[in-house]
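User: Sequence recovery, please. Input:
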């Protein structure tokens, strides 16, 4: 499972003195982009190809609080994908420093052509990059998001 160690910083906190809900989404997004960058798809490469990942839905379940300066581990797995790679589900689990699950985020998305502003099938190298992610136990085959 791809994972990154991070920290709950000052800007991640809310009025209740724990990590705010949108900070969990931010950490999951950062780990997605780190995975892509570490596997040949930097932001410059996406710009060169005029494509980018687009999230259409996030589902978050919260289990435990995360406090200021607490170390966290954010994982990334593949929870579903269409055969052509145009649609995907990514799963990020966020664990506290004590190893307890704090939150689970499932994000549904696809690939956006930044010029035409429509969903596309990714180039083969990008599809292959997504395919190296470890599949979650509940991995699902999804329909394509590209009209034929």
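Assistant: Recovered sequence (148 residues):
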């Amino acid at each position: 499972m791809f994972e990154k160690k991070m920290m709950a910083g000052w800007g991640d906190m809310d009025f209740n003195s724990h990590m705010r809900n949108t900070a969990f989404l931010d950490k999951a997004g950062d780990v997605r982009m780190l995975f892509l960058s570490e596997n040949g798809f930097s932001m410059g490469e996406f710009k060169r190809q005029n494509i980018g990942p687009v999230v259409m839905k996030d589902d978050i379940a919260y289990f435990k609080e995360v406090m200021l300066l607490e170390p966290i581990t954010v994982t990334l797995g593949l929870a579903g994908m269409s055969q052509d790679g145009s649609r995907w589900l990514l799963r990020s689990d966020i664990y506290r420093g004590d190893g307890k699950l704090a939150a689970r985020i499932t994000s549904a998305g696809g690939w956006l052509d930044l010029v035409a502003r429509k969903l596309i099938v990714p180039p083969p190298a990008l599809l292959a990059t997504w395919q190296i992610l470890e599949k979650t136990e509940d991995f699902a085959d999804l329909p394509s998001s590209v009209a034929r």
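The longest strand covers residues 101-113.
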